[in-house]
Amino acid sequence: MPTCKLCLEDAEKLMESHFIPKATYKRVRDSNSRNPSPLLMSMKGEHQTSRQAVRELLCEQCEQRFHSRGEDWTLRHAAHDANSFPLREILQEHTCYAPTPDLGYFACVEVPSVDVEALAYFALSIIWRASVTNWTIDGLEINPLDLGREYNEAFRRYLLGNTQFPENVALFFSVSSLDPVLLLATFPQTRNWGDYRSHFFSIPGMSFTV
User: Fold this and answer.
1) Cα-flanking dihedrals φ and ψ of residue 18, to 5°?
2) Helices 149-160 & 116-132 angle (0-180, nearest 10)
3) Is the Cβ–Cβ distance between 154 and 169 less than 8 Å?
4) 124: nearest Cα among 79, 94, 84, 169
5) What is the tens place of the pLDDT at every residue in 140-167?
6) Using an 8 Å Cβ cutoff, are 70 and 173 in contact?
């Protein structure tokens, strides 16, 4: 029997999991174009495709856990189109602290309607997915990120609900101020800074760095 990558339990069937949520692909389509399929860009070039990065990864219970604890809230508040961005609309009703002319930040404790736990869970779930297996989209292979055994297990236990947010891990989350919003998404990438590594990706209107 196949084994779920998250709970490590055998399952009669693994679900077809998406690398980045299915709803993301819909939002980066151009409905006004004769070919509305998203533009896939890589080091090998660029082309339009309707295909998505999916593979059998999780049991049904863990797949639903990812939805309920992170994806559902995050995607409801991400940019839906160029002119609809629920999370930014919420933030604009609160005080923005601006240390520089081109950078502002919000204190999450002052914005109770923002589900910080959901954003954190969503971010780590995407980075973890990128680390446990390779993914392919339209013939393009995406190699796994290297979190290291210690962090890989810490992420897994957190996502499973057995521990709190992992120690020695920080999350930086940003919201686009562009108007209209650029509707793009990126698969997770890694940058090595010597003393630490950062893993980052984006969905429409939002960017995450772990």
Assistant:
1) -95, 140
2) 130
3) yes
4) 169
5) 999 999 998 899 999 999 999 999 999 9
6) no
